[in-house]
Every structure is written in structure tokens, then in C-alpha cells.
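Bump. Still looking for GDSL-like Lipase/Acylhydrolase superfamily protein, putative isoform 2 C-alpha cells.
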Amino acid sequence: MDPHFKPSKLVMISVLLALSSLQNWANAKPSNSTNAKPSNSTKINHTDSTNANQTNSTNAKPEVPCYFIFGDSLSDNGNNNNLKTLAKVNYPPYGVDFPGGPTGSYMPPFAQAVGKGKEMLNGVNYASGSAGILDETGKYNMGDRIPLNEQILKNHKAVISSITKEMRYDLSATKKLLNKCIYSIEIGSNDFINNYFLPKFYDSSRRYSLSAYTTMLVQQLSRQLMVLYDNGARKFAVFGVPPIGCTPNAISLYGTNGSPCVDILNQAAVLFNERLQQLIREFNRTLIKAKFTYLNPPGAPVDIAEFVKIGACCKTGGGAGELCVRNSKPCSDPKKHIFWDGVHITEYQMEIMAKNAYSSNSTLCASPYNIHNLAML
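Sorry for the wait, here they are.
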């Protein structure tokens, strides 16, 4: 991961940290480039998660041979760096606490993995900041991004071809490998905050009621997950949408009418997550060769209401108003904040979520499996 690798938004970074025990990345070598750019994933503290992975996972026994990541800025570790987009963070104060520059990437972003067959055997990160389930999401207000369809239908299929070649075109061996990998899907937030609730740029709110829109999103996601299944995926870790109405950016943009958070945005997240959990249960019932688990997004609104009042750790206004202002000075103690910037939580919060996603036995964190148990299946 890059030295400025912004501490990713909410969930994904936590998973990467959680998976430090799940995948032995001891063979990962530090990058030789001092110009590596941060992922458009998010916050400053994501960098610390990287260091934690290095420290804790070097001697860990692999629980899975590979890990494929699909999603948005919660997961993006560099795929947006060369795109014409507002959704990237390759500038200070992102990465401000990175000791000495690039540490190397445990899992290459797709943009760097192309043509490197052996690296792809360990997995690839396809995630792209501002990407959504829908192809149009993020396009008209953020710029270039890699939608989930492209991540799956184009990029992942290209990687499978490279892996097949690396396996000497042994289709059975390739299938066996792909069956053992974990496939992480963290997507959906942008379909609301960078689509439905931006009528200036998108007409989705005029074409759908909120309920109909969330149903349509989950139906589309269902088709995308089935494409992964048809291409060998059998272990799925699918994240819910976090309380998007509690971000500093949402509160600044929409106001709260006396509530701690923007209620309509959180209602959208709840509707989506309810339908997503129904889909997970249906897949587990009908696709007997596969295992799906739902990972709860961080923090119910009631849990973070007091922290929301404190605001972001950095001065926001960068990107489309969601990110840190370039070269601004961050707060002195990120642990006192939930959010690093306008939309992404701090590394400290990520670490808590990571541990829960990996090992908690509470269905409030993961259902029906935590990531460790999913790996062991």
C-alpha cells in the first residue's frame, strides 16, 4: 500500500486489517517507487492498518490462498490514481503518519497487477473510489471511476485469464484455486450519496421511489454476484452500507433538522441492508456449493451521534467537498474523532471493526459467519 494510502473509508480497511491473520503476505516486497500514490480509499490512518498487517501477518499461516476485493473508496488502494477524478487522495495530510514512505502493497491494485501473473495468484484489489453498483454512479459529479460491472466483467475476467495462464492452462487447478479464495464486496454507498440523493446530476430519484430504488440496486448486485459465482467464487464476504447520513459531509450538505444525522440517508442504508441480508440468506439456501456472509457496517447512528458533533479530524473541502483540504493540518488526536475526513472514518475505528469482522461471534457484526470462520469452510 502506498505511503499516502489514505485510511480508507469505513469498512474495507477494517477487513484488510482483519485479514492480516488470514493471509500470509510475508512474500510481499516493499515498493521501490517513492512516488507511489495513495489509494482513493480514504483516510490517513489506513496507513497504520498497513503497518499492523506487516507486523502481525508476517509469520501467520495463510487461511486462504487469495483474496479478491471489489468496491469503492472504502477499499480502493490505488486504482483511481491515474484517472481523471476527484475521488483520490494522493496529497497531504493523507498518509501523514506513514513512517518513511512506501511500505509495499500486500495485495496489488488491479492497475499495478496487470501482466504480473504470479502476483495475481494472491489476489487483486479492483476497488475504485466513487464507484457504485450502477454504471452511472459517480460519473457526473466525481469523474472517472471503475464501476462494479467493469471490476467484475472486465478486470476480474482478465485476471482469471492471467491466472489460468500462470497455472499452465490447467482449468481444474485454476478452478480449485478460485474456489478457495475469499471475495470481498463492499459497494452501495455511492449509489445513494453520488447518485440518488444528487438530483442535480442524476434523475434516479425522479424515476424511482426510495424503496423501489434499493430493490433495484440489490437485484443488480445479485446479478453481479452470480457472475462471480459462475467464474469460480465460492466464499463471499458482502458488506452492508454504513450510516451514510452521519458523515460530516452529509450533515453539512443536507442539514439534520434537529436530528444527530441526516435521517433520510440512514433510512436508505437501512432499506438497502435489509434487502441485502435477504439476498444473502437466499443465496446460502440455493447455492449450496457457496458460502455468503453479511458483514454489518460500522456504528449505528445512536452510537456515533456524540462523535458526529466533533466533526472530521482534518479540514474538509477537498475533492467534491468530501476530502481533506490539500496540505491542511489534521487534528492532534484522531482517536477522539469518528471521521478522518468528510466521509471516511479513522484508522482507530477501522481497527475495531476489523477485529469484529474477523473474529466476533455476534450476529450484529457478521452473519452467518465471521471472516475467520468463512475462511475455514
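Residues 11-376 form a domain with the Rossmann fold fold (CATH 3.40.50).

Edit: fixed formatting.
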